[in-house]
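Homework-ish question, so no full write-ups if that breaks the rules, but can someone show me the predicted structure for this set?
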Amino acid sequence: MTLTTDKIDDRDGDAPRRLDGPASSAAPVSASTYRRILRRETHSSRSGAAVVFLIVLLLVAAYVGTEAVYAALNRKPLLFSPTDVLSTLVSAVSTEGGLVLAVGIATGVLGIILLIIAFTAGRRGRHTVDDSRVAVVVDDQVIAASLAHRARLAGSLAPGQVNAWVARSHARITVTPASGAAVDEESLLAASRAELDGVAYRPAVIPTTRVTPSGRLGA
Amino acid sequence: MTTSNRFLNRLFLAVTGLIVLAVGVFLVLVALPGNVLLSWTKSARGQVATSLRDTPLTGFGATGGSWLTGLLAVLCLVVVIVALVAIFTRGRGRIDRILESDDTSGRIEISSRFAETAIVDALSDRRDVTSVAVTAYRLKKAPALKVRLRVTAGSSPKPVIEAASGVVQGLDRVLGEDKLIPVLLEVVGASAVRPGADSRVV
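A: Not a homework solution, just the prediction itself:
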């Protein structure tokens, strides 16, 4: 089967999203659906952390449940009976007060970490790109690689000489020049800007360049 | 993929965090010298011992233990079951039909393999694409496609995105344009083995 892969016209980088592509006249994909998809793809689901703590909870509950059965049957506990928690705590405070304090602080820090995981946005290193038909997310790694490539071509540099790093709203391109050779920073910056403007990422990425103070021989 | 409830994930983490934080604060306060919480703990210890003594298991299961600990065991069992269900219902949502339509002449079903093969075939010949993976999943009770494109290191994502968009529009023409399938295009970087590696060939 062959699919037509004719390109659609280039649009300006800042043109608003048109959901009805040139090929379709009716019932485009609703903007809210794509908003939802893109939000899910650019933010962490926190599933990993939730699963880790569900497993911890599961293990703790399984152990406490087993010990509770032993206590209900009036048997000797396997390791530690849940009915002895408070008396152990009281005796521990009088004999090992520092240990209880340390455990309390560690537990409190773990709780704060959990709350931070729960309430921070959890953005993944991704940018979205507007398209007339599909929802697009691009890994920051791809953006950095393309920037490094463009900058390297613009400056006629060797592969190891350019390093790019992309954050949410800015990118930094680090150039290590060959010793004794000047680097045309302006042209590198212009090339990176052209690359970024050509794709029109959201949120927009502003590039900066940095030339390392010490060059490298044989680069 | 689309069934894990993100709000519940965060709610679970927040509640667990609050409980863990409260336990930590309690331990710190008890351990601090001259605190009233220690005497409170002592009296609580006495009350726990009393209530355990006052609630013996009776009937044929009389073992000398308290039914409160039996209740605790049942509670723990419930927690274990809920946690197991929560863990194993994650990552669902994949489907194998992208189009189901009841017509007067009969029912039409199009397998998601059709869209997957079509998109993979149309894009995998590109030199700036190293691999294409397509999955269909359920979103808001309707099918949706996810196209994962791995591009070669250093290539600009723009031409790839345009080509993929064109391919999807071609697919629209085949599948019918009255109800478009939401498509997510995910452009990811070079090989996982050499993350961020630049290409040797310009």
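Now go work out the reasoning yourself. Hint: Confidence is low (pLDDT under 50) at residues 1-26 of chain A.
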